[in-house]
Amino acid sequence: MKFANINIVLVCISFLVTSASAENLSLQQVLQRVVDHYPAIKSAAYQVEKASQENIKVESQLSWLLNSKAGYARETSLFGTATDRYNMGAGVNRSLDNGGLLGFNASIAKEDAADTFGPSIPNPSTKSRLDVNYRHKFAKGAGNPLYAEGMESAQAGELLALSDKLSLYDQLASQVIDLYLASATTQARINSIDKTIERALRLKKYIEDEFKLGLSEEKDVLQVDARLRINEADKISLQVAMQKQVISLNRLMGRAWDKPLLTDIKIEPLNLKSYNQLYQQSQSHSPALKRIDARLQLADSSIRSSRDKRKDDLDLVLYVGNEFNDGDTASGNLDESEIVGGISVEFNRGLDKSGFDAQLRQAHYDKGIALEDKKQILEDLQYNISSLLAEIKSSEQALNAFKNSVKAEDKKLKEAITRYEDGRIETDRIIDFESQLSVAELSLDLQSIELTRRYHQLNVIRGFIWKDVLLPEFVFDDKTLSGIQERSN
């Protein structure tokens, strides 16, 4: 226990030695350093960029696809004739945004039989073909829901990533505000207790002088000495608390853990708009509402997809092309070309659609849940804004009252000093008046900090806390991605 007390004293001595060189930082400066250093900020930016890549993945569904094949086969017919077959083909096709499929194909096949079957049958023969084909969907798949809902889901995913990023920013801001104002509160209490110790030392000297003259008793000296020791112990406790708070802030900013810091509280009244304007600003910023909007997008997309899956397949298939035949026959060379084409209708119906119906109901339930959650978030937002506005108004009134109290206590002390100089009042009375003024000043400082806290809380809700902070912008080029890969390796 003795060693623990020594450690505490050493920490406080270190704090006192370094406090002279402490850096004064405003809340905005602290926030700037936090966003410049905090790794999670960059991680959130990666998440947003990652989500934006989903759009590119979905858009690639409409790109052209190349297919090709080549082969050789040796087969024997019923007559025991061996035939060599060579074939090669290639094609390109793509899905259209209306749900249709468009393709272009080319193929060539060559057959070489050991024996000729007849004078009209070419051997060897070469057959080549060029055609274009198109499939149009009238029911299931019409409008290419896979692509449309994929884009919708990608946008919702990007909105979710953005809401997570904003939520992280707001959580960091709230954490910094709490630590910063807690440090400011501790700092104000230390300043106040310094004044109390100064008064106690003067009172002790006064009583000791009175004791030497026989005008006071020893118990008075012991009493003021005990009071002084209590004040010094309280100061050490406050210094330890402030050291912990500064360490926490240094950790967020990436500074050396023992680097001193002093807060700089300035009351800057907000230019508050009407409640409706504040409510609209808060809705525009709210990460929770953005998350709900993304959920609603996903639910609506799932409803449309489920309805499409429930439909029957009804496709119209068209193809047209040209086929070329070339070869040698007993009667001469064969070289002919012919237009080929076709049209067909394909129909497919599932007999049991209960699974699709269940999926559709689930999507409607998800939407209903999201709407109820949105209603709750809006109610909470309305309550938080109304509550903060009421608290700000009360705090501003209380701050004015404390200012008047400080003025009254200061006036009372100046009047008492005038009487003291005329020998009409004792020193201990002067010290009591100074103590009352110090208490009033501390109350004013604490009320100022609480008013500042509510200003900042309102700014966090409406997204204005970052107005004067330069948020980092990350460029995700090939060099950046290479750096990420190197770190991962």
Question: What this model shows, in words?
Answer:
This protein has 489 residues and is of the alpha+beta class. It has ten helices and eight strands. Strands 2-3-4-5-7-8 form a six-stranded antiparallel sheet, with no helix packed on it. The relative contact order is 0.13. The N terminus is likely disordered.
Which helices and strands, and how do they pair?
Blueprint: H1 2-19, E1 23-25, H2 27-37, H3 39-59, E2 65-76, E3 82-95, E4 101-113, E5 125-137, H4 145-212, H5 218-253, E6 261-263, H6 275-285, H7 287-310, E7 313-329, E8 332-348, H8 354-421, H9 427-462, H10 478-488
Helix pairs in contact: 1-5, 2-4, 3-4, 4-5, 4-7, 4-9, 6-8, 7-8, 8-9
